[in-house]
Amino acid sequence: MASSISEQLQIRSNTYKEDQEYRADDSEPCERSENIIFHADGLKWHVKVTFKAKIGIEKRCGLRMRREKLDALIRLIDFRSVPLLPDTVSELVIERASYPPCSPKLPMKLLSQPDYTEPSDTHWVYTIQEDASRVQYPIYNIDSGLKTMAVSEIEKKEQISNNVFLVTATWNGRDEEFIYKTVEHPFYEQNHTTIFQQELRNILLLRGCQNIVQLVAVVKSPSPFKTSPSSEGVDVILGMV
Q1: In this model, does residue 132 exceed pLDDT 90?
Q2: What are the pLDDT digits (tens) for 63-113?
Q3: How far apart are CA 164 and CA 179, in angstroms?
Q4: Which of 71, 103, 130 is at the close of a domain?
Q5: Is the pLDDT of residue 122 over 70?
Q6: What is the Cα–Cα distance from 71 to 180, expressed in whole angstroms?
Q7: Is a pLDDT exceeding 60 seen at residue 159?
Q8: Range of 210's domain?
């Protein structure tokens, strides 16, 4: 769920990260990031905002305040004027401008934010690239013969581990409980997708064996990063039950 919502901007909760080399004698980290979803004109854009500079925090403060400072800066960005990438996660990398600047100037709104005060001599520039850390969902192959379940049919009841849940779903006309394992992970790294795919292959190879967990179906959906709800696109696998 979102931690902060405006008319067009949704800052995703639990996505704030900062430089692991942040030292005790520094007032703020040199790099931090947060994920947002930007809604405009019926479209939905997924963006990771990476800030590679110092905002201007004069003395060391807690994590919450550092995150709020970044939130305030993000709300000042005019995302309509940024060439975001469709159907994926864009990474908006913000840096202090060099002279002469070699990247375009970051478009900012005119409205002020009480939680953010920009130094008068500061100019930010940006670059756009595909987020290499995004969740990479396996493509669903319609010819695979795998039984499928729509994500809308699943109701999570209990979280068992980081990406394993107890769920209920209607299956063969009955409400049943299942174990649901997702591709997405709170500490996702690209090898998690590879591991998931190998686990799925192993379960298929051991289908019918006693004392081995059995696959009911893969959970499929249009890509969560789809920009236009009306555009065509392949389905992806979100997990398995």
Answers
A1: yes
A2: 888 889 899 989 999 999 999 999 999 999 998 877 666 788 899 987 555
A3: 7
A4: 130
A5: no
A6: 33
A7: yes
A8: 142-240
> 175: which strand partners?
170
Out of 106, 130, 154, a domain closes at 130
- Determine contact, residues 149/219, Cβ cutoff 8 Å: yes
47: nearest Cα among 6, 100, 83: 83
Distances (CA, A) of 194 to 15, 139, 167, 183, 188: 22, 12, 24, 10, 12
Quick one: 17 and 86 in the same domain?
yes
Q: Is the pLDDT of residue 17 over 60?
A: yes
- Write out the H or E segment, with its range, that includes residue 75: helix 63-76
51 residue type, one letter: F
Answer whether 19's CB lies under 8 Å from 30's CB.
Answer: yes
CA dihedral 27, 33, 34, 35 (to 10 degrees): 170
> Which one, of 28, 2, 32, lies nearest residue 17 by Cα?
32
Question: Amino acid letter at 85?
Answer: L
- Contact partners, residue 4, CB within 8 Å, separation at least 6: 10, 11, 71
Residue 34 CA to residue 38 CA, distance in Å, equals 13
* Distance, CA of 195 to CA of 201 (rounded, Å): 10
